[in-house]
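During the reporting period the student researcher (J.K.) took over the structure-prediction task from the postdoctoral fellow and processed the backlog of single-chain submissions. One of the processed entries is reproduced below for the supervisory committee.
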Amino acid sequence: MVGIPGMQLAAGDRELLVHPAIGGVILFDRNYEAPEQLEALVADIHALREPRLLVAVDQEGGRVQRFRSSFTRLPAPACFGSLYDDDAAAAIKLIRDCGWLMAAELRACGVDFSFAPALDLRTRESVVIGNRALHRDPEVVAALARAFMAGMSSAGMCAVGKHFPGHGSVEGDSHLVLPVDGRDLETLRNADMLVFERMIHYGLAAVLAAHVVYSKVDARPAGYSRVWLKQVLRDELGFTGAVFSDDLGMAGALVDGGPPAQVALALEAGCDMVLLCNDRSAVEPVIEANPGRGSALRSARLAPMHGRTRTSWQDLRGDPRHRATASAVGALEPAPELDLGSDAPI
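J.K. obtained the following structure tokens:
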């Protein structure tokens, strides 16, 4: 999965995206001007190939929302956790509605899925996660995330739980450094991993692996670790869906040998799709080293990530449910936060 530089496909983009090793496109705010432009861009990407390329974005809410103008400004996920502490039933209903709203707006423009929700725990240690996390209690996170996922599904979109097995309890920002979590596996099972276990049971379609080393479990970051992705995620937790790497351009993912070595490690560890979001120069050596489409099993795991039903943007904006939900969701965070960064990966 790769990024593209502009709001329309250039000839070089088209040439790259028809290569069989490319499986999708991740969009950023550099790719967005208006809903009509976004719909045309996504339609162009989808028209390039069959099966269609997946088109994704980070539309969590709060600091991480790529499309803002004309889209509903979504609150930081932690706002739902705060509401849950006061009124659990109200929080569950509102976050389900928010999941529908987020997904319905994206689907109206043709986008297949958002890398959401974050399943990390909210702790004092992690600045980069912070209020991107729903709550500090894993059972509350699971309950809220389940409702958000149900809302997404009702709008025709699958959910992606991130960052497996949990990024919320480390101080380092994996965009800049390789964080290390020194807790043992049993501690992780009873805390951060509990959310993923619950969500897998609820039918989670995909996870995104953290660029974090859990030093008492494996020396490699989770996204490069067969221990985490095969032994724990697949065998122990019974996960059968798709596994995405986090952006391999992040500092936490750097290894000797550059992008081809990174991709090889991630795929061998158990990722089904790897992300190269912002460095076009890294893509060419990767596709030279990976000339084919990949395995049938990977394709089968990724197939459900294609968006299903959709309503036109005009019809959606005229729907009383959309207006009411946008108003209720918008009122949860009176002063929305600034974006984490236009090209900041997930």
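The committee noted the following: The chain has a mean pLDDT of 93.
J.K. will present the remaining backlog at the next meeting.
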